Amino acid sequence: MILSIVVDFSRSRALKRAADKYSSQALEADALHFSTDIWSSVVVLFGLCGVYAGEMFGIDWLKQADAAAALGVAAIVIWISIRLGKKSVDDLLDSVPAGLQEQVFAAARKVPGVEDVTRLRLRRSGPEISPT
Q: Are 49 and 63 within 8 A, CB to CB?
């Protein structure tokens, strides 16, 4: 399991770097998947160590550490799923990074002959964000 954590860590980091470089949602989701595997494996290891320690030292409540670890894994999966789902919904609804619209408004107002910008729509297309 420790070897799996090390391999998943290296894959997750490489995928995250590539996702940032190319603004790829697919690579970002893969990186997130591997990081979820890492956290889940770490929680399971702690649970197994807790059960072992509970058996060795006769601590009854520690013998239930695997059940607590399972709840921990479920919480991690739910948290990551919500984060990824929110990002996916934002991308599907053409949301743009906070503050970008104001920056584009300010830049447009600096163009000679432009007095005011009343409406601006931005859309993401791959790694690019452009006006529509």
A: no
Report d(CA 76, CA 38) in Å as an integer.
11
Is the pTM for the entire model greater than 0.70? no
- Burial tier of 71 (Cβ tally within 10 Å: 0-12, 13-18, 19+): exposed
Helix (H, G, I), strand (E, B) or coil at 71: helix
Residue 55 backbone zone (phi > 0: left; psi -120 to 50: alpha; other: beta): alpha
pLDDT tens-place string over residues 59-94: 999 989 989 999 999 998 899 889 888 888 887 887
Specify the DSSP class assigned to residue 126.
T
CA pair distance 94, 124, nearest whole angstrom: 6
Phi, psi of 102 (to 5 degrees): -65, -35
Query: Of 64, 66, 61, 122, whose CA–CA distance to 91 is shortest?
Result: 122
How far, rounded to the nearest angstrom, does the alpha carbon of residue 103 sit from its chain's CA centroid? 26
